[in-house]
Amino acid sequence: MFRNIKRGWRPFVVLLLFLIIWEFAVKKAEVPAWLLPTPSQISLELINGWSSVSLHLFSTVKLIMLGFFAGVTVGLLTAIILHNIPFLKDSFYPILILSQNIPIIVLAPLLVIWFGFGLLPKMIVITLVCFFPITISALDGFRQTAPELVHYMQMAGASKKQLFWKLEFPFALPSIFSGLKISATYSVMGAVISEWLGSEQGIGVYMTLASSSFRTDRVFVAIFIIMTLSLLFFALINLIERSVIRWKKGGNQDGAA
Amino acid sequence: MEQLELKRLSFHYQSIQVLKELQFTITSGEFVTILGPSGSGKSTIFQLIGGLLSPSSGTIFLNDKEITGRRGHISYMPQTPSLMPWRTILQNVILGQELHSKKDIVKAEEMLVKAGLIEYKDAYPHELSGGMMQRVAFLRALISPQPIICLDEPFSALDELTRQEMQSWLLSIWEEYKKTIIFITHNIEEALYLSDRILILSEKPAFIKKEIQVPFPRPREEAIIFTEDFLQNKKAIHQFLKGTDH
């Protein structure tokens, strides 16, 4: 923990300097607040409007959690199925990449037309941005399983199922966690975008309202909340990773890397 | 009592013939070493017995049942320890057992005590030295339910002193459990010190060129390797291996 603080102070100072420069530059140049508010105005807005912001925040966090869970489930299932059935992998791997080329902004309104304003289209949007990093990292992890361990398992007579659950899956865990961390940050963006589709609450809604009424300070409040959420989710996955992967303490072997 | 029987086993890798009508039998409780030059297809024999490969011709019987091309009938210890890094030592030891039958943690702990590794039972493999990891790999093979253990040059990656220590340790544990062992090595001294019988492989395509009954009684002392008798035997095998090469 102490080491983290020792290493973490540099980006913190950079951020602080950036905010200070921003504050004074805006004041000096007398930029109007609707064009670019100062950090102090933004934080004041955050504190004053907290009671309404917190409702939006709560709703978004719930959406992120649900969406991330759906994305992780779909991502892992896809990876497990594709890995164990090679002909499916050959046929679907390129299509997976194509799925990432669909512009979400264009797809989102279509989803509303197809599925209405409920939870389903939002889940689809978040899942679509979340599952890909997990599927790819899990597939890579499975594929990179140490050949000598595979050889041992086969010689010892392990079935295909045992080979997967007792060797390939745990071997891929560090790699899967890398994917989870990327997806965790994506899921925040995904949730906000999905809220633009039409929602009663959420940071996405707050943001749209703010920008259409030229409340730039609120837009920035939303931006900072989104950034903080991403950071928190990333840290949470990191924490879970550390408690799950205890065998790499020394870091002297680099499993999946 | 007959146990493992290889009958006229031939194997081709692409167009190269690796094994040529190889045959031998191993009876229950025996410690047999397959000795051969590098690249003579020693590991191929294990992959055939283990069912990873299928022979071009010939059959393998275990207790009069054909097991050609079928997996799971032997337990195995490879050249590298191949322990699962996410399993503790105890969990690694029971892995071989876990694949085929119920886990017997009591027996595993008892074995760890005899092997002098009990204090490491909750440690992870990366915390152990190379020699200790090999001991764990051997226990894992020993506790597996199959009657035959195949050891594929298990000590070749260890330094000379650790290797001798490991050989004596292996004998002491083996004499207690008396499982059938097939041991692959290219080290003559190791073969003589450990086994009841030595099968010498020819160059590729490999067949059993000569079979030697090791005359030394058990239990064997480490000092045996310095006796005149031992050295004579070693010399004879060495000359045999060399003589037929040219």
Which pair of chains has the greatest number of interface residues, and how are they split between the two chains? Answer: A-B, 27 and 30 residues
Give the helix proportion of chain B (percent range): 25-40%
Helix content of chain A: over 70%
Structural class of the secondary elements of chain B? Answer: alpha/beta
The overall strand count of chain A is: 0
The mean pLDDT of chain B is 89
For the sheet with most strands of chain A, the description reads: none
Radius of gyration of chain B: 18 Å
Q: How much of the sequence of chain B is in beta strands?
A: 25-35%
Q: What is the tally of beta strands of chain B? A: 10
DSSP helix count of chain B? 8
Strand order of the largest sheet of chain B: 6-7-8-3-9-10
Structural class of chain A: mainly alpha
Computed CA radius of gyration of chain A, to the nearest angstrom? 22 Å
Name the average pLDDT of chain A: 89
* Quaternary assembly: heterodimer
Layout of SSEs?
The complex is a heterodimer of chains A (257) and B (246).
Chain A: H1 2-29, H2 39-48, H3 50-84, H4 86-99, H5 104-115, H6 119-143, H7 147-155, H8 160-196, H9 203-212, H10 216-244
Helix pairs in contact in A: 2-10, 3-4, 3-6, 3-8, 3-9, 5-6, 6-8, 8-9, 8-10, 9-10
Chain B: E1 2-13, E2 16-27, E3 31-35, H1 42-49, E4 57-62, E5 65-66, E6 75-77, H2 89-93, H3 95-98, H4 105-114, H5 130-143, E7 148-152, H6 160-177, E8 180-185, H7 188-194, E9 197-201, E10 208-213, H8 228-243
Parallel strand pairs in B: 3-8, 3-9, 6-7, 7-8
Antiparallel strand pairs in B: 1-2, 1-4, 4-5, 9-10
Helix pairs in contact in B: 5-6, 7-8
